[in-house]
Amino acid sequence: MPLVPGATGMGLLPLLRLLQLSSPALPVGAYTYSQGLEWAVESGAVRTEAEAAAWIGGLLEWSLARFEAPLLACQLAAWRAGDDGEVLRLNDDFLASRESAELRAESVQMGWSLVRLLAELDAFAALPGWRERLLAVDTPAFPTAWSAAAAAWRVPAEQALAAYLWAWAENQVMAAVKCVPLGQSAGQRLLAALGERIAPLAGTALSLPEARWSNHTPGLAIASSRHETQYTRLFRS
């Protein structure tokens, strides 16, 4: 009997691949980055569960969902359409949008790590043409490599965006649990609240025209830049 009515094991495969892509076990080093959250804690801007929720939720809505997620959606479509020129354009745009050396280095390192993994992973590399197309991208950003895997594994776009946003939020919450610090129950409360916002944000990002993309988040830019010279730190960004 199928695990889900009307579904087969093969029908579930894109979902299982998506869970793999969005898992904290994905060996790209995401857990080593806080994206400026560590400096926000050090400066006193984030000291409580409520302040962590406001910081992470604000970035989720005003940066990730309005720039990174719609860009990822367009990359998914470009990979699927065989438009590698558009993939490269969006990759360059994303790298140019990183507002500090740490944020750019983070995306490049995670992108390189994911490319290396996918190039050696039969589930991706054995699919005709995908390995060669991905390796042809010079300085791949993390969303570029991630969207290639999601496209190759035929993950529906809305599900892909929701999982990408969830993985980012989960990593931010894990960072907050460590550096605010917060308890594990507080972390789960944060994830539950953030999770309620992700589905509508993913839906909006999927249809947001490029002329309306924006990652105007001065607080993130300041926090990331200040973190580069922070004296003591646990995270790389």
Percent of residues in helices comes to: 55-70%
CATH superfamily: Urease accessory protein UreF
State the total count of DSSP E strands.
0
Order of helices and strands: HHHHHHHHHHH
* Shape field: globular
Rg, please?
18 Å
CATH class: Mainly Alpha
User: What does the largest sheet look like?
Assistant: none
How would you describe the overall organization of this protein?
This protein is mainly α. The protein has a single domain, classed as Urease accessory protein UreF, CATH 1.10.4190.10. Helices cover about 70% and strands about 0% of the residues. The chain is built from eleven helices and no strands. Helix 3 crosses helix 8 (about 140-150). Mean pLDDT is about 95; it is low at about 1-5.
Write the layout of secondary structure elements.
Elements: H1 9-21, H2 37-43, H3 49-81, H4 84-97, H5 101-120, H6 122-125, H7 130-135, H8 142-152, H9 157-179, H10 184-207, H11 218-227
Helix pairs in contact: 2-11, 3-4, 3-8, 3-9, 3-10, 5-8, 9-10
Structure described in brief:
The chain has one domain: Urease accessory protein UreF. The chain has 237 residues and is mainly α.
Which key terms come to mind for this protein?
70% helix; 237 residues; 11 helices; mainly alpha; Urease accessory protein UreF
